[in-house]
Design goal:
Helix Hairpins, 25 helices, binds zinc ion, 7-stranded antiparallel sheet, OB fold (Dihydrolipoamide Acetyltransferase, E2P), manganese, EC 6.5.1.2, binds nicotinamide-adenine-dinucleotide, DNA replication
Length: 675
């Protein structure tokens, strides 16, 4: 390459890096992942190293951070706040060690302090006479932002120092960060309320800290870990960096418990590997390790270059966020029928593994991200959580990008998908017909509070389904000892027991049976209410939604789930087969015997003296009656208190039986029900 295209590249890199620094440092709105920024930065460094004459004072390589936001008051740092040089390989780390040694006068003892490199934002705290007087961001290294009110809200920052041996003026430096759990929590809340979702914990920490209203900062889960003291002229309180950190601990600061001092670069290498191993299990994000020459005298010999000290180096970990291309979106059906969009990615190495699938949560998330097929996206894999698409790199969207279309039918069973109003999740309406939901449906059917089939655990259900012995819950009642005795881990005795348990489970109650069908949002309590209300299955299956809503605790959503379940031909067949294969329960008549008012519809109106309307309603329901809110020809009885109005009139017009409060009390008394 001739000089001029290379110089053009250099200029383009400078422009890009300036732009991305501004987005990252000033606006807290990075457009690309750090790994991409680092690649561009290193490319710039490489060009500037081979062409030192092209170096310019305003090159990103010569600068720290970016200018502070004008909305904050400015703070001038007495001692500049610098950045750190990075290395990405062991070889480069060894080179650093050689450079350090070559610059030191003979006869030195070289120890390194090793610390995690927390991924947050650099902050300076100023204490005068032991009292916190100022907090500031790094800004461009010379001038930062005054965030005193905000740092005061962070509980790990002492407002007053402990002990008494601190210097009159003390400037402490450290990193304010957001632990991962707190980050997940505030993002979950933000998603619910359609507020700003942060890309990563570092971005969340920066956005939370640089608030003009400190009450917002106070609500954010921030911490500060301290890693240094700005050097003051003359006063030598201690001789090493690690000793200084020890003092900071005594004065009440949080200093990383991972701090270690080693006596060789080999020690640094082992420290790096040990912490990299534990990276996922730490409570916060770290993006590498910082190694510092421990002796303050040796640090002074080494000094600084424009943007970083010569006595420290950051050894970066593999990136937890990378840029890749979204090739396609696939839809997976989970065990509850929830359909999740899964991003199919150009394979990319991120968070220590090669990732080719990532979660997109649901359609709300797809809309929030504004992501399209073909987009360049940022994938994040941190901790042990599944990789996620967290951002679209809009500036790299190709012309060919295409919208992600929500499927209308289940990719597994072809049943229509539905999305309840206000819900982000698409669901397969197939119920038992859906292969994806089948195993879970059968496990639920067999469980203790459902059909209570003793011995039919999750493993066995999977085995039966995988062996093709059963497809639906009704098939369970076609199993025989001969069919199952030869299965792996089964044997004659277990087979006998299981068939006996199946036989026993045939006699059940309507409530259990309804619960066991696994209709969405029909738990035990709702199943009981349904059984009481309708008395029999045919009545329930025939009930329109308006009638279902009359059942206690059944709202429009549950009613629509129940209705949809029984509207499915497949489900109706399974229910019929279950009945044909011997599943039964006491009939409504029998229930009538237990519940004196079963099958009756009552209406309450007017004011009652001796009880509240809701007490009366509960009592009637306990006796088996359905309590409706309006009178019709089907109403069996109206209990009218004083000042009853239109309902009473209607009852009289229709010739429906009417009783007063005394009459109602008499009914309760005669049924042995007390109030
Ligand atoms: N995505 C983007 O668009 C974009 C833009 C600009 C910068 N960046 C990222 O920002 C980083 C560069 O920023 P930088 O100049 O702050 O440098 P840096 O983060 O690489 O290193 C210096 C910083 O490390 C921090 N640090 C954490 N633990 C420390 C410890 N124990 N001792 C000393 N310092 C510690 C301090 O805040 C210090 O200022 C890179 O990772 C880069 O990718 C990204
Ligand atoms: Zn399905």
């Amino acid at each position: 390459m001739s000089d001029s295209p290379l110089r053009e590249r250099l200029m383009a890199l400078r422009d890009q890096l300036h732009h991305h620094s501004y987005q990252y440092y000033v606006l807290d709105a990075p457009l690309i992942p750090d790994a991409e920024y680092d690649r561009l930065f290193n490319e710039l460094l490489a060009i500037e190293t081979t062409h030192p004459d092209w170096l310019a004072p305003d090159s990103p390589s010569q600068r720290v951070g970016a200018a502070p936001l004008p909305s904050f008051s400015q703070v001038r740092h007495e001692t500049p706040m610098l950045s750190l040089d990075n290395v990405f390989s062991e070889q480069e780390l060894l080179d650093f060690d050689r450079r350090v040694k070559s610059r030191l006068d003979d006869g030195f003892t070289l120890n390194y302090a090793c610390e995690p490199k927390l991924d947050g934002i650099a902050v300076s705290l100023l204490y005068v006479d032991g009292v916190l007087v100022r907090g500031a961001t790094r800004g461009d290294g010379q001038i930062g932002e005054d965030i005193t009110q905000n740092v005061k809200t962070i509980s790990s920052i002492p407002l007053r120092l402990r002990g008494s041996d601190w210097p009159d003026d003390l400037e402490v430096r450290g990193e304010i960060y957001m632990p991962r759990a707190g980050f997940e929590r505030i993002n979950a809340v933000a998603r619910e309320s359609d507020a700003k979702v942060f890309v990563n914990p570092r971005n969340a920490a920066a956005g939370s800290l640089r608030q003009l209203d400190s009450r917002i900062t106070a609500k954010r889960p921030l911490e500060m870990s301290c890693y240094g003291i700005a050097q003051q002229d003359g006063d030598a309180l201690f001789t090493s960096h690690s000793e200084g950190l020890q003092r900071l601990r005594e004065w009440g600061f949080l200093v990383s418990p991972e701090l270690q001092v080693v006596d060789s670069i080999e020690g640094c290498v082992s420290y790096y590997h040990a912490l990299l191993q534990r990276r996922d299990s730490l409570a916060y994000d770290i993006d590498g390790i910082v190694f510092k020459v421990d002796s303050l005298a040796l640090q002074a010999q080494l000094g600084f270059v424009s943007r970083a000290p010569r006595w420290a180096i950051a050894h970066k970990f593999p990136a937890q966020e990378e840029i890749t291309v979204l090739r396609d979106v696939e839809f997976q059906v989970g065990r509850t029928g929830a359909v999740t969009p899964v991003a199919k990615l150009e394979p990319v190495f991120v968070g220590g593994v090669t990732v080719s699938n990532a979660s997109l949560h649901n359609f709300d998330e797809i809309e929030r991200l504004g992501v399209m097929i073909g987009d360049a996206v940022v994938v994040r894999r941190a901790g042990d959580v599944i990789p996620k698409v967290v951002q679209v790199v809009l500036e790299r969207r190709p012309d060919t990008a295409s919208a992600i279309i929500a499927p209308k039918y289940c990719p597994v069973c072809d049943s229509p998908l539905e999305r309840a109003p206000g819900e982000a999740v698409l669901r397969c309406s197939g119920g038992l017909v859906c292969g994806a939901q089948r195993k879970e449906a059968i496990k639920h059917f067999a469980s203790r509070k459902a059909m209570d089939i003793d011995g039919l655990g999750d493993k066995l259900v999977e085995q039966f389904v995988d062996a093709g012995l059963i497809e639906t819950v009704a098939d369970l009642y076609l199993l025989t000892v001969e069919k199952i005795a030869n299965l792996e881990r089964m044997g004659q005795k277990s087979a006998d027991n299981l068939i006996a348990a199946l036989e026993k489970s045939r006699a059940t109650t309507l409530q259990r049976f309804l619960y066991s069908l696994g209709i969405r949002e029909v738990g035990e309590a709702t199943a009981l209410n349904l059984a009481r209300h309708f008395g029999g299955l045919p009545e329930l299956m025939a009930a329109p939604e308006e009638q279902l809503i009359e059942v206690e605790d059944v709202g429009p959503i549950v009613a629509s789930h129940i209705h949809a379940f029984f509207a499915s031909e497949f489900n109706r067949v399974v229910v019929r087969q279950l009945s044909e294969r011997g599943v039964h329960w006491p009939s409504a008549q029998k229930l009538d015997g237990e519940q004196p008012l079963a099958g009756q519809t009552w209406v309450l109106t007017g004011n009652l003296e001796t009880m509240t309307r809701s007490d009366a309603k509960e009592k009637l329901q306990a006796l088996g009656a359905k309590v409706a809110s309006s009178v019709s020809a089907k109403t069996d009885c109206v209990a009218a208190g004083t000042s009853a109005g239109s309902k009473l009139a209607k009852a009289e017009a229709l010739g429906v039986k009417v009783i007063d409060e005394q009459g109602l009390l008499a009914v309760f008394a005669s049924t042995g029900s007390s109030i």
